[in-house]
Amino acid sequence: MTKVYLTTAIPYVNGEPHLGHPLDYLLADFYARYRRLHGDTVRLQAGTDEHGNKIYKKAMAAGKEPQDFADENSKKFQDFIKALGVEYTDFIRTTNATHEARVQEIWTRLKEHIYKGTYEGWYCEGCERFVTDKEYADSSGICPDHQAAYQKLTEENYYLRLSDFKPEITAAIESGDLRILPEFRKKEMLKLISDAPDVSISRPRQHLPWGVPVPDDDSQVMYVWVDALSNYITVLGYPDQDISEYWPANVQFVGKDILRFHAIIWPAMLLGLGLPLPKVILSHGFVLSDGQKMAKSLGNVVDPLDVLKRHGLDAFRYYFSRHFDTFMDSDFTWEKFDDAYNNELANDLGNIVQRLSVLCQKNNIYGLVFTPQPDPTYEKLMDDFEFTKAIDYAWGKLQELNREINDTAPWAVAKSDPARAKELLIKLTHQLLAANHLLKPFLPITEQVEQVFLSQQVTPPSTPLFPKERS
Ligand code: MSP
To answer: How many distinct structural domains can be found in the chain?
Structure first.
Protein backbone atom coordinates (compact mmCIF):
# COMPACT_ATOMS: atom_id res chain seq x y z
CA MET A 1 0.00 0.00 0.00
CA THR A 2 1.50 3.31 -1.06
CA LYS A 3 1.22 6.44 1.03
CA VAL A 4 0.35 9.56 -0.89
CA TYR A 5 0.46 13.15 0.34
CA LEU A 6 -1.38 15.89 -1.54
CA THR A 7 -1.50 19.54 -0.57
CA THR A 8 -3.66 22.52 -1.51
CA ALA A 9 -2.86 26.23 -1.27
CA ILE A 10 -4.30 27.75 1.88
CA PRO A 11 -6.45 30.79 1.05
CA TYR A 12 -6.25 34.12 2.85
CA VAL A 13 -9.16 34.67 5.17
CA ASN A 14 -9.63 38.31 4.21
CA GLY A 15 -12.85 37.38 2.44
CA GLU A 16 -15.24 34.55 1.71
CA PRO A 17 -14.68 31.72 -0.76
CA HIS A 18 -15.17 32.76 -4.39
CA LEU A 19 -15.43 30.82 -7.61
CA GLY A 20 -11.65 30.82 -8.09
CA HIS A 21 -11.07 28.92 -4.87
CA PRO A 22 -12.48 25.44 -5.61
CA LEU A 23 -9.84 24.45 -8.17
CA ASP A 24 -7.06 23.54 -5.73
CA TYR A 25 -9.42 21.39 -3.68
CA LEU A 26 -11.18 19.75 -6.57
CA LEU A 27 -8.06 18.83 -8.52
CA ALA A 28 -6.51 17.41 -5.37
CA ASP A 29 -9.70 15.53 -4.59
CA PHE A 30 -9.96 14.03 -8.10
CA TYR A 31 -6.47 12.69 -7.73
CA ALA A 32 -6.98 11.60 -4.11
CA ARG A 33 -10.08 9.59 -5.02
CA TYR A 34 -8.30 8.06 -7.99
CA ARG A 35 -5.40 6.90 -5.83
CA ARG A 36 -7.71 5.64 -3.09
CA LEU A 37 -9.54 3.54 -5.67
CA HIS A 38 -6.16 1.94 -6.32
CA GLY A 39 -5.86 1.07 -2.64
CA ASP A 40 -3.39 3.82 -1.71
CA THR A 41 -3.59 5.69 1.59
CA VAL A 42 -3.97 9.36 0.79
CA ARG A 43 -3.48 12.27 3.10
CA LEU A 44 -4.98 15.47 1.73
CA GLN A 45 -4.28 18.72 3.54
CA ALA A 46 -6.32 21.93 3.38
CA GLY A 47 -6.33 24.99 5.57
CA THR A 48 -6.39 28.76 5.87
CA ASP A 49 -3.68 31.45 5.72
CA GLU A 50 -4.58 33.88 8.48
CA HIS A 51 -1.75 36.34 9.10
CA GLY A 52 -0.64 39.47 7.28
CA ASN A 53 -1.70 43.07 6.78
CA LYS A 54 -4.42 42.30 4.30
CA ILE A 55 -6.35 40.33 6.90
CA TYR A 56 -5.45 42.68 9.75
CA LYS A 57 -6.81 45.70 7.88
CA LYS A 58 -10.01 43.95 6.86
CA ALA A 59 -10.61 42.93 10.45
CA MET A 60 -10.04 46.49 11.66
CA ALA A 61 -12.38 47.85 9.01
CA ALA A 62 -15.04 45.38 10.16
CA GLY A 63 -14.46 46.48 13.76
CA LYS A 64 -13.36 42.98 14.79
CA GLU A 65 -10.40 41.42 16.52
CA PRO A 66 -8.18 39.82 13.85
CA GLN A 67 -8.51 36.42 15.48
CA ASP A 68 -12.32 36.60 15.61
CA PHE A 69 -12.39 37.74 12.02
CA ALA A 70 -10.07 34.90 11.00
CA ASP A 71 -12.16 32.38 12.96
CA GLU A 72 -15.31 33.38 11.07
CA ASN A 73 -13.80 33.21 7.63
CA SER A 74 -11.77 30.10 8.27
CA LYS A 75 -14.98 28.33 9.24
CA LYS A 76 -16.57 29.45 5.96
CA PHE A 77 -13.70 27.89 4.01
CA GLN A 78 -13.91 24.66 5.93
CA ASP A 79 -17.68 24.45 5.36
CA PHE A 80 -17.09 25.24 1.73
CA ILE A 81 -14.53 22.47 1.26
CA LYS A 82 -16.96 20.01 2.83
CA ALA A 83 -19.75 21.25 0.57
CA LEU A 84 -17.52 20.49 -2.43
CA GLY A 85 -17.36 16.84 -1.37
CA VAL A 86 -13.59 17.06 -0.85
CA GLU A 87 -12.33 14.11 1.17
CA TYR A 88 -9.57 15.95 3.01
CA THR A 89 -7.83 14.47 6.02
CA ASP A 90 -6.23 17.54 7.62
CA PHE A 91 -7.27 21.15 8.04
CA ILE A 92 -4.61 23.55 9.27
CA ARG A 93 -4.94 27.16 10.40
CA THR A 94 -1.83 29.32 10.54
CA THR A 95 -3.04 31.00 13.75
CA ASN A 96 -3.07 27.64 15.48
CA ALA A 97 -0.61 27.78 18.41
CA THR A 98 1.08 24.49 17.46
CA HIS A 99 1.67 25.73 13.92
CA GLU A 100 3.10 29.02 15.21
CA ALA A 101 5.52 27.23 17.54
CA ARG A 102 6.61 24.90 14.74
CA VAL A 103 7.19 27.79 12.35
CA GLN A 104 9.41 29.44 14.93
CA GLU A 105 11.40 26.24 15.22
CA ILE A 106 11.67 26.11 11.44
CA TRP A 107 13.06 29.66 11.46
CA THR A 108 15.63 28.71 14.09
CA ARG A 109 16.74 25.73 12.02
CA LEU A 110 17.20 27.98 8.98
CA LYS A 111 19.33 30.48 10.91
CA GLU A 112 22.63 29.78 9.17
CA HIS A 113 20.97 30.89 5.89
CA ILE A 114 19.40 34.04 7.38
CA TYR A 115 20.99 37.48 7.71
CA LYS A 116 19.76 40.97 8.58
CA GLY A 117 19.68 43.72 5.99
CA THR A 118 17.80 46.78 4.90
CA TYR A 119 15.05 46.51 2.35
CA GLU A 120 14.41 49.49 0.15
CA GLY A 121 11.88 48.88 -2.52
CA TRP A 122 8.33 48.01 -3.36
CA TYR A 123 5.69 45.76 -1.87
CA CYS A 124 2.26 44.60 -3.04
CA GLU A 125 -0.09 43.93 -0.15
CA GLY A 126 -2.56 42.08 -2.38
CA CYS A 127 0.14 39.56 -3.37
CA GLU A 128 1.97 39.90 -0.03
CA ARG A 129 5.05 40.12 -2.20
CA PHE A 130 8.25 42.17 -2.49
CA VAL A 131 8.46 43.59 -6.00
CA THR A 132 11.67 44.27 -7.93
CA ASP A 133 12.44 47.65 -9.49
CA LYS A 134 12.10 46.08 -12.94
CA GLU A 135 8.63 44.74 -12.16
CA TYR A 136 7.71 48.12 -10.74
CA ALA A 137 8.82 49.86 -13.92
CA ASP A 138 7.21 47.27 -16.22
CA SER A 139 3.82 47.72 -14.61
CA SER A 140 4.11 51.49 -14.02
CA GLY A 141 3.88 51.02 -10.30
CA ILE A 142 0.46 49.31 -10.34
CA CYS A 143 0.03 45.61 -9.52
CA PRO A 144 -1.70 44.06 -12.55
CA ASP A 145 -3.39 41.43 -10.38
CA HIS A 146 -4.74 43.78 -7.74
CA GLN A 147 -4.93 47.08 -9.61
CA ALA A 148 -3.36 48.78 -6.61
CA ALA A 149 -0.24 50.96 -6.35
CA TYR A 150 2.85 49.25 -4.93
CA GLN A 151 3.94 50.56 -1.53
CA LYS A 152 7.40 51.98 -1.02
CA LEU A 153 9.20 50.30 1.87
CA THR A 154 12.40 51.18 3.64
CA GLU A 155 12.85 48.86 6.57
CA GLU A 156 15.14 46.48 8.35
CA ASN A 157 14.35 42.89 7.46
CA TYR A 158 15.77 39.45 7.74
CA TYR A 159 16.76 37.82 4.46
CA LEU A 160 16.97 34.21 3.38
CA ARG A 161 20.14 33.63 1.38
CA LEU A 162 18.55 32.21 -1.75
CA SER A 163 21.95 32.03 -3.41
CA ASP A 164 22.79 29.12 -1.06
CA PHE A 165 20.16 27.02 -2.83
CA LYS A 166 19.80 28.31 -6.38
CA PRO A 167 22.01 25.70 -8.07
CA GLU A 168 20.26 22.82 -6.32
CA ILE A 169 16.74 24.11 -7.01
CA THR A 170 17.60 24.76 -10.64
CA ALA A 171 19.07 21.28 -11.07
CA ALA A 172 16.02 19.65 -9.46
CA ILE A 173 13.61 21.50 -11.73
CA GLU A 174 15.71 20.89 -14.83
CA SER A 175 16.04 17.17 -14.15
CA GLY A 176 12.36 16.78 -13.29
CA ASP A 177 13.11 15.59 -9.75
CA LEU A 178 10.96 18.55 -8.87
CA ARG A 179 8.40 18.43 -11.63
CA ILE A 180 6.67 21.70 -12.49
CA LEU A 181 3.39 21.30 -14.30
CA PRO A 182 2.34 22.35 -16.84
CA GLU A 183 5.63 21.90 -18.63
CA PHE A 184 5.56 25.40 -20.18
CA ARG A 185 5.79 27.00 -16.75
CA LYS A 186 9.07 25.23 -16.04
CA LYS A 187 11.11 27.65 -18.18
CA GLU A 188 9.34 30.60 -16.64
CA MET A 189 10.29 29.40 -13.16
CA LEU A 190 13.91 28.70 -14.11
CA LYS A 191 14.23 32.25 -15.39
CA LEU A 192 12.65 33.68 -12.22
CA ILE A 193 15.03 31.68 -10.05
CA SER A 194 18.09 32.79 -11.93
CA ASP A 195 17.05 36.46 -11.59
CA ALA A 196 15.79 36.25 -8.01
CA PRO A 197 17.57 38.24 -5.30
CA ASP A 198 17.74 36.97 -1.71
CA VAL A 199 14.31 36.88 -0.16
CA SER A 200 13.16 39.21 2.56
CA ILE A 201 11.47 37.00 5.14
CA SER A 202 10.42 39.36 7.92
CA ARG A 203 8.78 42.75 8.45
CA PRO A 204 9.18 45.18 11.36
CA ARG A 205 6.43 44.59 13.88
CA GLN A 206 5.19 48.17 13.59
CA HIS A 207 4.47 47.53 9.90
CA LEU A 208 3.09 44.02 10.37
CA PRO A 209 1.34 43.67 13.69
CA TRP A 210 -0.48 40.43 12.82
CA GLY A 211 1.99 37.61 12.36
CA VAL A 212 4.33 35.10 13.96
CA PRO A 213 7.15 36.77 15.97
CA VAL A 214 10.70 36.09 14.83
CA PRO A 215 12.45 34.03 17.54
CA ASP A 216 14.82 36.09 19.67
CA ASP A 217 13.87 39.36 17.99
CA ASP A 218 10.66 40.89 19.24
CA SER A 219 10.87 43.80 16.85
CA GLN A 220 10.31 41.56 13.81
CA VAL A 221 7.46 39.44 12.52
CA MET A 222 7.77 36.68 9.93
CA TYR A 223 6.86 37.36 6.34
CA VAL A 224 3.48 35.70 5.74
CA TRP A 225 4.75 33.39 3.02
CA VAL A 226 7.34 31.78 5.32
CA ASP A 227 4.58 31.15 7.82
CA ALA A 228 2.09 29.97 5.16
CA LEU A 229 4.38 27.66 3.17
CA SER A 230 5.47 25.92 6.35
CA ASN A 231 1.91 24.66 6.84
CA TYR A 232 2.56 21.80 4.41
CA ILE A 233 4.98 20.23 6.88
CA THR A 234 3.81 21.56 10.24
CA VAL A 235 0.48 19.87 9.57
CA LEU A 236 2.36 16.56 9.40
CA GLY A 237 4.01 17.31 12.74
CA TYR A 238 7.35 18.80 11.64
CA PRO A 239 9.69 19.36 13.40
CA ASP A 240 8.30 17.53 16.45
CA GLN A 241 7.55 14.35 14.56
CA ASP A 242 9.15 12.24 11.87
CA ILE A 243 7.26 13.11 8.68
CA SER A 244 9.04 10.76 6.30
CA GLU A 245 5.93 8.59 5.85
CA TYR A 246 4.26 11.41 3.93
CA TRP A 247 6.98 13.87 3.01
CA PRO A 248 7.99 14.61 0.25
CA ALA A 249 4.52 15.44 -1.03
CA ASN A 250 3.47 13.65 -4.18
CA VAL A 251 1.66 16.67 -5.58
CA GLN A 252 1.21 20.24 -4.40
CA PHE A 253 -1.75 21.95 -6.07
CA VAL A 254 -1.52 25.73 -6.51
CA GLY A 255 -2.84 28.49 -8.76
CA LYS A 256 -0.58 29.93 -11.46
CA ASP A 257 -0.22 33.24 -9.57
CA ILE A 258 1.46 31.60 -6.60
CA LEU A 259 3.60 29.06 -8.41
CA ARG A 260 6.64 31.34 -8.00
CA PHE A 261 6.51 31.10 -4.19
CA HIS A 262 6.28 27.33 -4.41
CA ALA A 263 9.06 27.00 -6.95
CA ILE A 264 11.55 29.37 -5.31
CA ILE A 265 11.07 30.23 -1.62
CA TRP A 266 9.55 26.90 -0.65
CA PRO A 267 12.31 24.69 -2.13
CA ALA A 268 14.91 26.99 -0.56
CA MET A 269 13.30 26.56 2.85
CA LEU A 270 13.12 22.79 2.43
CA LEU A 271 16.74 22.50 1.36
CA GLY A 272 17.76 24.70 4.29
CA LEU A 273 15.95 22.28 6.59
CA GLY A 274 17.56 19.29 4.93
CA LEU A 275 14.19 17.99 3.71
CA PRO A 276 13.50 16.54 0.26
CA LEU A 277 11.67 18.60 -2.36
CA PRO A 278 8.10 17.76 -3.38
CA LYS A 279 7.78 15.51 -6.41
CA VAL A 280 5.29 17.61 -8.36
CA ILE A 281 4.01 21.16 -8.15
CA LEU A 282 0.93 21.47 -10.31
CA SER A 283 -0.29 24.97 -11.16
CA HIS A 284 -3.77 25.41 -12.52
CA GLY A 285 -5.20 28.26 -14.54
CA PHE A 286 -7.65 30.92 -13.45
CA VAL A 287 -11.41 30.87 -13.35
CA LEU A 288 -12.80 33.72 -15.40
CA SER A 289 -16.33 35.03 -15.27
CA ASP A 290 -17.84 35.78 -18.67
CA GLY A 291 -14.35 35.83 -20.17
CA GLN A 292 -13.04 38.38 -17.67
CA LYS A 293 -11.19 38.34 -14.41
CA MET A 294 -13.68 38.23 -11.55
CA ALA A 295 -13.70 41.52 -9.69
CA LYS A 296 -16.16 43.32 -7.47
CA SER A 297 -15.59 46.48 -9.52
CA LEU A 298 -16.68 44.64 -12.69
CA GLY A 299 -19.75 43.27 -10.94
CA ASN A 300 -19.08 39.77 -12.26
CA VAL A 301 -18.13 37.95 -9.08
CA VAL A 302 -19.93 34.62 -8.86
CA ASP A 303 -20.70 33.11 -5.47
CA PRO A 304 -19.74 29.43 -5.59
CA LEU A 305 -22.51 28.61 -3.13
CA ASP A 306 -25.06 29.87 -5.68
CA VAL A 307 -23.48 27.62 -8.28
CA LEU A 308 -23.67 24.67 -5.91
CA LYS A 309 -27.32 25.39 -5.19
CA ARG A 310 -28.35 25.65 -8.82
CA HIS A 311 -27.95 21.99 -9.84
CA GLY A 312 -26.26 20.29 -6.88
CA LEU A 313 -22.78 19.00 -6.10
CA ASP A 314 -22.26 16.63 -9.02
CA ALA A 315 -23.08 19.33 -11.56
CA PHE A 316 -20.58 21.63 -9.87
CA ARG A 317 -17.82 19.04 -9.91
CA TYR A 318 -18.71 18.02 -13.44
CA TYR A 319 -18.44 21.57 -14.76
CA PHE A 320 -15.17 22.17 -12.96
CA SER A 321 -13.64 18.96 -14.28
CA ARG A 322 -14.94 18.68 -17.82
CA HIS A 323 -15.44 22.31 -18.82
CA PHE A 324 -12.46 23.81 -17.02
CA ASP A 325 -9.10 22.94 -18.44
CA THR A 326 -6.79 21.55 -15.75
CA PHE A 327 -3.95 23.85 -16.69
CA MET A 328 -5.33 26.84 -18.62
CA ASP A 329 -7.70 29.68 -17.74
CA SER A 330 -11.35 28.72 -18.09
CA ASP A 331 -14.58 30.57 -18.25
CA PHE A 332 -17.70 30.27 -16.15
CA THR A 333 -21.06 31.50 -17.41
CA TRP A 334 -24.45 30.51 -16.09
CA GLU A 335 -25.56 29.72 -19.62
CA LYS A 336 -22.72 27.26 -20.24
CA PHE A 337 -23.30 25.75 -16.82
CA ASP A 338 -27.01 25.19 -17.47
CA ASP A 339 -26.25 23.77 -20.92
CA ALA A 340 -23.76 21.31 -19.46
CA TYR A 341 -26.32 20.22 -16.89
CA ASN A 342 -29.19 19.76 -19.31
CA ASN A 343 -27.41 18.53 -22.41
CA GLU A 344 -24.73 16.38 -20.83
CA LEU A 345 -25.50 15.33 -17.27
CA ALA A 346 -29.25 14.92 -17.79
CA ASN A 347 -29.19 13.77 -21.43
CA ASP A 348 -26.19 11.45 -21.20
CA LEU A 349 -25.66 10.04 -17.73
CA GLY A 350 -29.13 10.67 -16.26
CA ASN A 351 -30.90 9.37 -19.33
CA ILE A 352 -28.80 6.21 -19.67
CA VAL A 353 -29.26 5.28 -16.02
CA GLN A 354 -33.01 5.79 -16.31
CA ARG A 355 -33.42 3.86 -19.55
CA LEU A 356 -31.22 0.93 -18.62
CA SER A 357 -32.58 0.52 -15.10
CA VAL A 358 -36.17 0.52 -16.37
CA LEU A 359 -35.24 -2.06 -19.01
CA CYS A 360 -33.37 -4.24 -16.49
CA GLN A 361 -36.33 -4.13 -14.13
CA LYS A 362 -38.80 -5.05 -16.88
CA ASN A 363 -36.62 -7.92 -18.05
CA ASN A 364 -36.03 -9.32 -14.58
CA ILE A 365 -32.32 -8.74 -14.48
CA TYR A 366 -30.91 -8.91 -10.97
CA GLY A 367 -27.90 -10.09 -9.00
CA LEU A 368 -25.47 -8.31 -11.33
CA VAL A 369 -21.79 -8.43 -10.44
CA PHE A 370 -19.25 -5.88 -11.67
CA THR A 371 -15.47 -6.04 -11.46
CA PRO A 372 -13.70 -2.97 -12.86
CA GLN A 373 -11.04 -3.69 -15.45
CA PRO A 374 -7.93 -1.52 -15.84
CA ASP A 375 -8.16 1.04 -18.65
CA PRO A 376 -4.59 2.01 -19.63
CA THR A 377 -5.59 5.08 -21.68
CA TYR A 378 -7.56 6.52 -18.79
CA GLU A 379 -4.94 5.63 -16.22
CA LYS A 380 -2.19 7.29 -18.20
CA LEU A 381 -4.26 10.50 -18.32
CA MET A 382 -4.95 10.40 -14.58
CA ASP A 383 -1.33 9.59 -13.78
CA ASP A 384 -0.34 12.63 -15.87
CA PHE A 385 -2.89 14.80 -14.00
CA GLU A 386 -4.76 15.43 -17.25
CA PHE A 387 -8.08 15.49 -15.44
CA THR A 388 -10.09 17.27 -18.13
CA LYS A 389 -8.92 14.79 -20.74
CA ALA A 390 -9.63 11.85 -18.43
CA ILE A 391 -13.24 12.83 -17.75
CA ASP A 392 -13.68 13.65 -21.42
CA TYR A 393 -12.51 10.14 -22.30
CA ALA A 394 -14.92 8.61 -19.77
CA TRP A 395 -17.74 10.76 -21.08
CA GLY A 396 -17.01 9.60 -24.60
CA LYS A 397 -17.70 6.05 -23.41
CA LEU A 398 -21.10 7.14 -22.10
CA GLN A 399 -22.00 8.82 -25.37
CA GLU A 400 -20.98 5.72 -27.31
CA LEU A 401 -23.15 3.67 -25.01
CA ASN A 402 -26.11 5.98 -25.58
CA ARG A 403 -25.76 5.42 -29.31
CA GLU A 404 -25.40 1.68 -28.83
CA ILE A 405 -28.59 1.53 -26.78
CA ASN A 406 -30.42 3.34 -29.58
CA ASP A 407 -28.90 1.14 -32.29
CA THR A 408 -29.47 -2.20 -30.59
CA ALA A 409 -32.96 -1.27 -29.28
CA PRO A 410 -33.13 -3.84 -26.46
CA TRP A 411 -36.83 -3.01 -25.85
CA ALA A 412 -37.62 -4.24 -29.39
CA VAL A 413 -35.42 -7.34 -29.04
CA ALA A 414 -37.28 -8.21 -25.81
CA LYS A 415 -40.49 -8.65 -27.74
CA SER A 416 -39.12 -11.32 -30.05
CA ASP A 417 -36.22 -12.87 -28.12
CA PRO A 418 -36.26 -12.28 -24.33
CA ALA A 419 -33.12 -14.35 -23.71
CA ARG A 420 -31.09 -12.33 -26.21
CA ALA A 421 -32.50 -9.08 -24.81
CA LYS A 422 -31.36 -10.11 -21.36
CA GLU A 423 -27.87 -10.87 -22.59
CA LEU A 424 -27.74 -7.57 -24.44
CA LEU A 425 -28.94 -5.60 -21.41
CA ILE A 426 -26.38 -7.22 -19.15
CA LYS A 427 -23.66 -6.26 -21.62
CA LEU A 428 -24.89 -2.67 -21.91
CA THR A 429 -25.19 -2.35 -18.13
CA HIS A 430 -21.63 -3.54 -17.72
CA GLN A 431 -20.52 -0.90 -20.19
CA LEU A 432 -22.35 1.71 -18.15
CA LEU A 433 -20.75 0.51 -14.93
CA ALA A 434 -17.32 0.58 -16.56
CA ALA A 435 -17.76 4.19 -17.69
CA ASN A 436 -19.28 5.03 -14.32
CA HIS A 437 -16.21 3.61 -12.62
CA LEU A 438 -13.97 5.98 -14.58
CA LEU A 439 -16.12 8.88 -13.41
CA LYS A 440 -15.74 7.98 -9.74
CA PRO A 441 -12.92 10.42 -8.90
CA PHE A 442 -15.04 13.27 -10.28
CA LEU A 443 -18.67 12.54 -9.43
CA PRO A 444 -19.85 11.20 -6.07
CA ILE A 445 -23.20 10.28 -7.70
CA THR A 446 -21.40 7.31 -9.27
CA GLU A 447 -21.92 5.45 -5.97
CA GLN A 448 -25.65 5.83 -6.42
CA VAL A 449 -25.46 4.60 -9.99
CA GLU A 450 -23.72 1.45 -8.79
CA GLN A 451 -26.33 0.92 -6.13
CA VAL A 452 -29.13 1.10 -8.69
CA PHE A 453 -27.68 -1.76 -10.73
CA LEU A 454 -25.81 -3.80 -8.16
CA SER A 455 -28.58 -4.10 -5.56
CA GLN A 456 -30.43 -7.41 -5.31
CA GLN A 457 -33.19 -6.00 -7.48
CA VAL A 458 -32.52 -3.28 -10.06
CA THR A 459 -34.79 -0.37 -9.09
CA PRO A 460 -34.84 2.76 -11.23
CA PRO A 461 -34.25 5.99 -9.27
CA SER A 462 -37.61 7.39 -8.14
CA THR A 463 -36.67 10.73 -9.70
CA PRO A 464 -34.14 10.94 -12.54
CA LEU A 465 -30.58 11.60 -11.34
CA PHE A 466 -30.47 14.98 -13.04
CA PRO A 467 -34.07 16.20 -13.31
CA LYS A 468 -34.36 18.95 -15.88
CA GLU A 469 -36.95 20.92 -13.95
CA ARG A 470 -34.53 21.46 -11.08
CA SER A 471 -32.99 24.63 -12.45
N1 MSP B 1 -2.64 32.49 0.92
C2 MSP B 1 -2.05 32.30 -0.34
C3 MSP B 1 -1.63 30.87 -0.56
C4 MSP B 1 -0.67 30.33 0.45
S5 MSP B 1 -0.24 28.67 0.09
C6 MSP B 1 0.97 28.34 1.15
C7 MSP B 1 -3.05 32.70 -1.45
N8 MSP B 1 -4.33 32.76 -1.09
S9 MSP B 1 -5.52 33.16 -2.10
O10 MSP B 1 -6.74 33.15 -1.32
O11 MSP B 1 -5.21 34.36 -2.79
O12 MSP B 1 -5.56 32.02 -3.17
C13 MSP B 1 -5.79 30.68 -2.79
C14 MSP B 1 -5.77 29.78 -4.01
O15 MSP B 1 -6.83 30.14 -4.89
C16 MSP B 1 -4.48 29.91 -4.84
O17 MSP B 1 -4.11 28.65 -5.36
C18 MSP B 1 -4.90 30.84 -5.96
O19 MSP B 1 -4.15 30.67 -7.14
C20 MSP B 1 -6.32 30.36 -6.18
N21 MSP B 1 -7.12 31.36 -6.87
C22 MSP B 1 -7.50 32.59 -6.41
N23 MSP B 1 -8.24 33.19 -7.40
C24 MSP B 1 -8.35 32.39 -8.47
C25 MSP B 1 -9.09 32.39 -9.66
N26 MSP B 1 -9.83 33.41 -10.05
N27 MSP B 1 -9.06 31.26 -10.40
C28 MSP B 1 -8.40 30.12 -10.01
N29 MSP B 1 -7.69 30.09 -8.91
C30 MSP B 1 -7.43 31.28 -8.22
O31 MSP B 1 -2.62 32.90 -2.55
So the answer is: 1
